[in-house]
Every structure is written in C-alpha cells, then in structure tokens.
Design brief:
By secondary structure, the chain is of the alpha/beta class. Helices cover 40% and strands 21% of the residues. It has ten helices and twelve strands.
Amino acid sequence: MTLQQLNYVITISEAGSLNKAAEILYVSQPSLTSALQELEKELGIIIFRRSGRGVTLTNDGVEFLTYARQVYQQYETLMEKYGKSGTLKKKFGVSAQHYSFAVKTFVEVVKQFNTAEYEFAIRETKTREVIEDVSTLRSEIGILYLNNFNRAVLVKLFQTNDLEFHKLIDCHAYVYLWRGHPLAQCTSIRTEQLREYPCLSFEQGGNGSFYFAEEILSTREYLRTIKANDRATMLNLMIGLNGYTLCSGIICEELNGTEYRAVPFETNQKDTDGQMEIGYIVKKNQMLSKIGDLYIKEIKQYLQKQEEINRQTGIEPYL
C-alpha cells in the first residue's frame, strides 16, 4: 500500500467516477483502475462498486476511506510543516452548523493564503453531517454546540467516532428576528410574546431528531413552526412572515446584513437548556494543520471581540 494509492481512493470517492478522478489526478483511467485493483487485491476487500453511473463505496470501502483520509491528511500536514515547496495542493475544510461567525472567520483565514496552492471548503450543514465530516476527515474541524439536553447523546457520538470537543464560548438564548418585527425593539422577550409568530428552525433531514436541532429549547411546544435548509431562506422568512429563531446572539452583520436583531430571551434561571456551549470537534490525537491552528485562533479572537461589543452596546443575556 502506498500514499499514492490512498490519494487515488480519496480522489475517486470525491469525484464519484474513475473518469473524473483520472482527469483530476492527471493519470490515464487504465493506470488508475490497475492501481485500485492492486490495492483491493492486497487488502482483500472491494472498495468501490462500479456501475454505468460511476462508483460508490462498499461498506468495507467506507471504513477504509476513513483511515485513508486520516493517514493522508497527516502526510499532508507533515509535508506542510517539514517538506520542501512542491506541487502538492493542500486541503482545508470546516463543517459547521449555521453560524455566520464560522463563515466570517473562514473568509478571513482564506484571505491569508494563496488559493492556488490550497483547496478550501466551508460546509454549513446538518448536525449529524458535521460529525460525519470530521469523523471521515472530509473536514478537519467541525463547529457545533452542546447543552444539557443534547450533551449526553452528542458526546457519545463523539466517543464512538473518535472525536474530541473543545469549548469556544458559553452563550444564553437570544431571539433572532428582523428589525421591522413588532418585538424587535423589546429589551427582552418572553415565550408568551412569541406565540403568534412562526418559529423557524433548520431542517435536520430524515435522520434528524430533537438532539440534533441547531436551535436551543427545541423540545418546547411551538404553535407555529417552519423549517428551512439554508440561512438565506431563513432570513427571508423572518422578513416575509415575521418569523424568529433562537440563537447564540453572536451575529455577523457583514454576512447577514443589518436588518436583523438579537434580543435576549427570558428563561427561567433553572432552565439550563437555554444555555449553550459552542465549540469545535476534531479527530482525537490529530495534529492540526497550520491553517486549522490559525482558524481556531482567529475564531476565538472573533468571539471574544463580539462578546466585548455586546457588553458595550448593552446586549446582555437575560438571567
């Protein structure tokens, strides 16, 4: 088994076909097919199922790919730190729940590197997919939150997938709505004030559950609810339907615009589900790449700065 063969498998899985992978790798398809067959023979497993539509991973292939990505990413990190400059295109990816600050930090980090030398990816996605992306090393870092309600379930998933969670910031619940909303000028908002307005949340897919909800207090009874798949749609629903969502209160106006407000949500002091711990997940014992290390430093600085801005402008959580 060689690093080249590992790279071939990773590229084929991402391209979805041998033809496309061969183009990306600048090798002939017969050579790529031969290398793959030699690897499968050596391992004693079938990695891909071939069909007229391309290739798909077998169960053995899914497991092998997880380890292949881990080994190859470590190789890339070693080359980045100790190797001579070459043509190796380094990869860096982040998967996150729908946090504008995660995207904003990603943008600022990418600006510091030559995009011709790196392959960058930012994925705003479902909670389960954030975990899967980091577990399979599709992304180096995942951004999500824990609270007293989902902690036991998610921590168990982290352990099963050999992941570590690191805290970034503690937050309380805020109501996020547009500036023209009837409640936008309130200094704080109570549950009963929201009853006539639709509660917006991000769709978690067929395998979704309360434990994967991006919005805190997701188990409460809401008279009107609407689900969305992306941030732009949710923002449009806020304006069009006077909808609202519950969030961390950390808002990036540069990305979301200035037409929205985060108002402290009144929760009972004993209601600890209204407190969230936002953090990041990585593979256990994984050496962060130079970009990964910078991304974490930048996101910490950004969150600290936003906390200070909230204090100065009087946007404090309701306790």
